[in-house]
Amino acid sequence: MTTASICTIGDEILIGQIVDTNSSHLARALGEAGVRTDRMVSIADREEDILTTLEAELRTHDIVLTTGGLGPTKDDITKPALAKLFGSPEMVKNEAQEAMVRTILHSRGLDILESNLMQAMVPAGCEVIPNRFGTAPIMVFRFPESRFGHPATLYAMPGVPHETLGMLPEVIDDIRTHNALAPIAHRNLMVYGLAESALAALIAPWEDALPADMHLAYLPNTLTGVKLRLSVYGSAETSPESRISAQIEALKKILGPRIYAEQEDRLEAVIGRLLREREETLSAAESCTGGEIAHLLTTIPGASDYFLGSVTSYAVSVKEKVLGVPAATIREKGVVSADVAEAMARGARQLTGSTWAVATTGLAGSEGDGVNEGGTVWIAVDGPAGTVSEKRVYHNDRERNIERFSASALDLLRRCILGTIHA
Amino acid sequence: MTTASICTIGDEILIGQIVDTNSSHLARALGEAGVRTDRMVSIADREEDILTTLEAELRTHDIVLTTGGLGPTKDDITKPALAKLFGSPEMVKNEAQEAMVRTILHSRGLDILESNLMQAMVPAGCEVIPNRFGTAPIMVFRFPESRFGHPATLYAMPGVPHETLGMLPEVIDDIRTHNALAPIAHRNLMVYGLAESALAALIAPWEDALPADMHLAYLPNTLTGVKLRLSVYGSAETSPESRISAQIEALKKILGPRIYAEQEDRLEAVIGRLLREREETLSAAESCTGGEIAHLLTTIPGASDYFLGSVTSYAVSVKEKVLGVPAATIREKGVVSADVAEAMARGARQLTGSTWAVATTGLAGSEGDGVNEGGTVWIAVDGPAGTVSEKRVYHNDRERNIERFSASALDLLRRCILGTIHA
Fold it and tell me: Is A384 buried (19+), middle (13-18) or exposed (0-12) by CB count in 10 A?
């Protein structure tokens, strides 16, 4: 299998000033092309580190992709280091990139400085893919087998994300042209309502029987539950797609309605699709989740087609006055109770005229209220067939509890809309 | 100088499924403690890669921090690899972590499985920092000088971000205890309402005159504005504190009320303190921000002391019926207008009886409505002295625009409460 290492060059990543998002995009594109990334490295703008690291990565990988370190400012020393590594100290002008530099600066209304034109100078013998998005070209260094014991190629790309990602397809094309790549297939299942360990126990017999070339990963997340990812590395002769589909179908039989999506997705997106299909609408009444449910729902483009609005009723007076929760219910049952959650849901539905309403009332912090412990929430859904409520208790910090409360409420809503739970 | 390498372990990063954000946080915390991170590496869940990489990193660094690979499921093989690396195949039970596992699972109402208890088994001879946020302990491996030519320490941390970040202070404390770190002083100023480039131009004369051992970093963030961090690397003899204070005072004179906090802080926390001091209350009416403002306000513990509630009025009918925005205003001025934003703020204040109300109405997506371009928002604040509104236009994606809209509204509210802006 063709392997790659992705190296980012630049102090700003190592001091934690910026998060490297390029490598993730590069790895995904490489994987889809059939190249396995088995290392990512971030190093500083220091010649010694650059030389040592790139030598080591080229020795152990077919392809090395670097990003960053190619800007016109003083702290960028990558290009001279690459020239040294390639054994080609002579710098030559690349006409295609020089023309690109002039076009780009002209279009931005900028003067062309000497430092800009220097960007078109590259080590003799390297190939150039002109950069359509910036002044630093992509340099391709093809090392002969004699150098590292196998043919190795280094692609030096700029680090500015829109330049890196903009030029990525051309780099992938070049990799495809020069390597015989085997396909890789991935499939995801999104599962809500089972902890990672419980999920693992439930599917152990299936997982234990997986063929050796298939690999299952568990990716847990407070807001989206657990994402299960099944990967298979194909050979040139057989397509992995049908084999992976058979395994996924078997897994779906085991997990049933716990699965809420088959691609990478969020509960609020799934709910949006369900409501749009059914031409139904939604509102929310939030106490302890404080607007997070409304926020999640409205991050989905087009949410205004089905989401009418919500009331965050932090104060008791707002619960009574705006949502119409009876004062007697609050007095007798307490604010954190099934009755109040249900009355809030009914109140939001009545106020907005929506098909469905979801409500939360609970204690997001770690302190209890004398009756309920911290982390307790009552979630309720009111809909055409009546009202449903459930209690949950979580023991995370405040922000994490709010996320869990919100995701639980959205999952209850999803199951109510689907009819797998009834009032 | 004490140096560190940060290693993430897990296929999900190498296939580009998730972006590694932990390493950035770790590097920043290490830097603030006086440790220089000069490498970050991501490797797969493969024993050979783990052993080769950690050996190499320990040989060239004083400290190696790993994250990930410690979950209870089958794809995690880090712990056996660490045992091999440490030359300590025997696994022993760590009582403190086992108690933690039981507490955590019990509090979540989950059954305790064998795989959960296995989390408390660690290689003999390693030290344990019990993980308060999850079931996998932090393992500390102290290698003698004879092993790598210098004393080297490996901290193996879980990879779930809230666990990694939650336990980071204790790891940093341990690093401080076991290393003589040169003092580094940092001071932050939180600035809202100036783009990074405009801010840089404004403070250029001050920045250019900084002594050589002081370094200014710009850390822009959609929700918090720009954090300016001034760092000085002290020697053992002189305290850098007084020198850095003098520079910060000079900078404060230049920036004035653009500075909203002097420590790392969020607008919603600053607003919470202002309201509590004044014994005043707040409500919100949100259209395009869809609950994000209420969510931000209620992430602050004790927000119920001053935040009464909010209405997310996504549908026009909710704006009219719940918030009392006159239908004529919407018809004549349009939903995205100063008049509607102001009427929403007044409506929320009246509905809840709060001292202040903040409102937003705009277009979070990139598409315009024929009158306003995408990314346009009107923000309004209603208070004891009347109503203020301002227009902003941003050109980000939907989620980023929602964040910017919310932060702008909170900053307008902050300035109204402080009286630096008047109705």
Answer: exposed
Asked if the model's pLDDT at residue A74 lies above 50, the reply is no
Residue B218: closest C-alpha in chain A: A17
Which ipTM did the prediction report?
A: 0.73
B216 touching chain A per CB within 8 A: no
| Chain B CB within 8 Å of residue A17 CB | yes
CB A80 within 8 A of CB A30: no
3-state SS assignment for residue A346? helix
pLDDT at A238: 62
Question: Which residue in chain A is spatially nearest to B227 when comparing CA positions?
Answer: A17
Distance CA A297, CA A292 (A): 9
List the end-to-end C-alpha distance of chain B, in Å, as a whole number: 54
Q: How many CB atoms lie within 10 A of CB A71?
A: 19
Residue B41, chain A, CB below 8 Å: the answer is yes
Does the pLDDT value for residue A109 go beyond 50?
A: yes
What pairs with residue A141 in β-bridges? A154
Place of tokens 């999850």: B134
- In tens, the pLDDT along B174-225 reads 999 999 887 677 788 999 988 777 788 899 899 989 988 888 877 777 788 8
The residue extents of the domains of chain A are 3-178, 184-261, 267-418
- List the beta bridge partners of residue B129: B138
Rg over alpha carbons for chain A, rounded to the nearest Å, is 28
**Average pLDDT of chain B?**
91
User: What is the CATH code of the structural domain delimited by A267-418?
Assistant: 3.90.950.20
- Which among A371, A317, A384, A382 has a CA at the least distance from the CA of A343? A382
Q: Helices B196-208 and B241-255 sit at what angle, rounded to 10 degrees?
A: 130
For the domain made up of B3-178, the CATH class stated in words is alpha beta
Instruction: Name residue A189's beta-bridge partners.
Output: A228
pTM higher than the cut 0.80:
no
pLDDT tens across B97-131, in order?
A: 999 999 988 877 788 888 888 899 999 999 999 99
Percent of chain A residues topping a pLDDT of 70: 96
Q: Which residues of chain B have pLDDT under 70?
A: 73-76, 183, 233-239
pLDDT digits (tens, 9 = 90+) for A175-186: 999 998 876 778
Among B109, B298, B314, whose Cβ lies nearest the Cβ of A314? Answer: B298
A184-261 fold: Alpha-Beta Plaits (3.30.70)
Q: What three-state secondary structure class fits B215?
A: strand
Which whole-number Å values give the CA distances from A237 to A165, A182, A234, B76, in the listed order? 31, 9, 8, 31
Q: Which helix (H) or strand (E) holds B230?
A: strand B225-233
SS3 A17: coil
Query: How far apart (Å, rounded) are the C-alpha atoms in residues B371 and B255?
Result: 35
> Alpha-carbon distance A377 to A356, whole Å?
19
Cβ contact, residue pair B12, A321, below 8 Å = no
Q: Which amino acid type is present at position B160?
A: V
CA terminus-to-terminus distance, chain A: 54
Cβ contact, residue pair B291, A310, below 8 Å: yes
Instruction: Scan residues 174-213 of B and list those with Cβ closer than 8 Å to A.
Output: none
pLDDT over 60 (residue A277): yes
